[in-house]
Amino acid sequence: MVLAVAALGLAVAPAASAETEPSLRVYPTEVRPNEIFGTGIGGGCDSYSAVTSPGFAGPVELVAVGGDRENLWGNGPASGVPGTYTATATCDGKTLTTQFTVLDYAPPSWGLGPREVAPGGVISGGSDTIHGCPGGPEGPATSPGFAAPLQWTRGGNFGRFSGDTTVVTTPGTYTATLKCKGTPIPGEIEFTVVAP
Asked: Mean pLDDT for each consecutive 10-residue tract of the chain (196 residues)?
């Protein structure tokens, strides 16, 4: 998982540009609490520090992307406290700063389908641990319309997870709930068990 996130961050690191002065960046400049972000220095440094901020869960160590000290990059999780923050790093003894925002918490983004299912039929759900369900699920998805909780039995690249369960035999509209470790707000999706 850590390697996948690191690979993702390196894959989305902004391309180095011919900057005359080194500059510090946080990408994206608006992140959700506990969401993985990228940060780095463009413009070249022979010596440099980790990037720190009260808006980070901890210091972010930088690496030279492709061995190029013109593009130093790292990834880390944002803090769980919304607000606007300053990130700081040093480059050849000079202090660099930039601002970014940790947004308010949002409900998890996840999928559930089909939205209309026959009594006793199979329903599937899934998300990912990077953007959809920050920090990963706190447990299975639940619903009064499920015959048993929807367990996450399959995984995939970039923290993807999914699973299946059967629905009850009583027709009606039900709400399924997913709780994630990175947000106190649950994600809810309605589905219908259709009359036979």
From this structure: 42 50 95 90 94 97 90 94 97 97 92 98 94 90 98 93 98 98 92 95
3-state secondary structure of 10: helix
Point out which residues pair with 176 in neighbouring strands: 189
Could you give the count of Cα atoms lying within 13 Å of 195 in the half-sphere of its Cβ? 0
Q: 118: which 2 tokens?
A: 């026959």
pTM: 0.63
Q: Report the C-alpha dihedral over residues 147, 160, 29, 10, rounded to 10 degrees.
A: 170
Q: Residue 171, Cβ neighbours under 10 Å: how many? A: 14
- Cβ–Cβ < 8 Å for 34, 183: yes
**Alpha-carbon distance 48 to 137, whole Å?**
36
Nearest of 150, 114, 148 to residue 133 by alpha carbon:
150
Q: Which of 6, 17, 8 is nearest to 41 (CA)?
A: 17
- Say if CB 176 and CB 111 are below 8 A apart: no
Distance CA(175)–CA(145), nearest Å, equals 7
